[in-house]
Amino acid sequence: MEDTDFIESDVRLFYEILSHENESEIRLINVGVYPIVKIVKGVEKFVSVAREYNDKSNVYTVLRERRPNFKGSARAEDIIKVQIIALDFDPIREKEYPSNDDELKRAVDVATKIAEDFEKKGFLMPHIAATGNGAALYFKIEAIPITSDSRTYITELLQRFEEYVRSEYKALLHKNEVRLDNMYDLPRIGRVIGTKNIKGTETKDRPHRVSRFLYVNTPLRNDKNLFDFIKSLSKKPYVILEEMVSYEPLKLSKKPPSSQQSLHSEQKMASTTEQTLIFEGSPVYPMQPIPYFGEVLVGNWIWEYKVDGFRLQIIKNDGKIYYFGRRLEKNPDWTEKLNKVIPFESFRNLPDKSMLDAELYSTIGRRGVPSVFANNGKAAPIIYVFDVIFYAGTFVGNLPLSKRKEMLNSIEFLPPIFVLPYFKVENLENHLKEAISKGFEGIVIKELNSKYEVGFDAPIATQWWRKIKPK
Predict the structure, then answer these.
(1) Average pLDDT over residues 48-53
(2) Any idea where the ATP-dependent DNA ligase family profile domain is (predicted)?
(3) pTM strictly above 0.70
């Protein structure tokens, strides 16, 4: 007979659902105490550690596959596969206390309804668990390999899936006063099902409960269709960086340009002026593109999607993140407002004393950006970073754009921060059509040898950045 505070069969089943090929990371968490991390290999050790710490700590595990022989606590770069997708539902209740029976039932009912709907849509019905205070769904999928090039893309897809569920079941969640927690980040942890949830202050009608499976789809199988569905939800295109590594000089023109319009290769770039700048932690006037009129393009040109948002400077200084708009004469300090909705953790891998050029967008487009500032929950922020001005206290604007792009893509951001992808210019008409079809405002073309000129009294417009929008 199993311990009523520890369900070993469910712990074993949970390990089997996770399908970890390498070591598993168990995190033992108590409020106010730094987590204990145990790296274990195999189901017996997994069960042993879970049993040892059950009812003493909240027992969690990193859900996704970690790189082999890694002894530390997993970060995004340590995750090598996504083989499980979790949705975690919590009832809205008074903080610091467990759920009562009614609140728990509402969360379970919501999770069950959504699970059944997925089955009706032709997917495998996910496994359902009561986590003690709420409910969780576990979708076991064909393993998706993670590389340095695809990590941001996969994270964005998982985030999109959660946004889809929130939107599709908005009325159901609202009616039952249940929220869907964020589980999309790659090193996300989840409660080990079968262990006791001891979060919050226990009372008579709000007890600590053992987590347990309510439904298991046996025999265990991988859903072969779910991830294709998730990919279809993304409206923001991403590319594998290996497709963007080489650029040959090219000339594109359908008609001879005028002498004023022609960009001759022997011209000295306007942005070649050497600037010696010292990082002061203050915003600068960002460089601006000018319209494109059909000129001959000589050199190595790339194109990016033109995001219709608010231009944004991001500064990391002395361990803090600061946000500023581009119109400095109006003192657009958005730091306090954006720090409420954008976690500092998103920039944990950005060196201190760095400055980024970016665009602030939202989950419902440009019209949702004011809602982001208002913190009213109608829209969540999305930030596309496309250039770096200072890096670790050094001005890098004198480096060619190609080097700045390499530097930017070496930084591992976490959502809602995304590095804007770029592509080799081949056919501007087709590039513009693609951008518009995906909901962007247009495109911006940039020369890979161009430098970044900082304005002191006003933004500097450069001929080496050109914007193209539909006529």
Answers:
(1) 97
(2) 374-471
(3) no
Topology given in CATH for the domain delimited by 8-233: Alpha-Beta Plaits (3.30.70)
Rounded Cα gap, residues 131 and 108, in angstroms: 9
Give me the residue spans of the domains in the chain: 8-233, 244-468
- CA distances to 26, 31, 73, 109, 196 from 52, rounded to whole Å, are 12, 19, 20, 32, 12
Tell me how far apart the alpha carbons of residues 406 and 445 are, in angstroms, rounded to a whole number. Answer: 17
Question: Which residue is listed with tokens 């592509």?
Answer: 423
For the domain 244-468, what is the CATH code?
3.30.470.30
Tokens of 302: 């790339």
Inform me whether the pLDDT recorded for 322 exceeds 70.
yes
224 Ramachandran zone, left/alpha/beta (phi>0; psi -120 to 50): alpha
Tokens at 245, concatenated: 């590594």
The answer on pLDDT for 55 being more than 80 is yes
Measured CA to CA in angstroms, residue 6 lies from 2, 50, 132 at distances of 7, 9, 12
Q: Read out DSSP for 292-322?
A: --S----B-EEEEEE--SEEEEEEEETTEEE
Q: What is the pLDDT of residue 7?
A: 97
Least trusted range by pLDDT, from 189-193, 385-389, 426-430: 426-430
Q: How does the average pLDDT of the chain come out, rounded?
A: 86
Q: Element (H or E) spanning 222, and its range? A: none
Q: How far apart are CA 101 and CA 108, in angstroms?
A: 11
Point out which residues pair with 316 in neighbouring strands. 321, 354
Contacts for 211 with CB less than 8 Å, ≥ 6 apart = 10, 129, 130, 131, 132, 191, 192, 193, 194, 195, 196, 197
Give the number of residues written for the chain. 471
**If you ran DSSP here, which 8-state letter would residue 250 be given?**
B
Tell me if residue 74 falls in helix, strand or coil.
coil
Tens of pLDDT, residues 260-280: 333 333 333 333 346 668 888
Instruction: Please write the tens of the pLDDT for every residue from 211-270.
Output: 999 999 999 999 999 998 998 886 443 332 223 322 232 333 333 333 333 333 333 333
Nearest to 136 by CA among 194, 82, 95: 194
Which residues pair with residue 310 across a beta bridge? 360
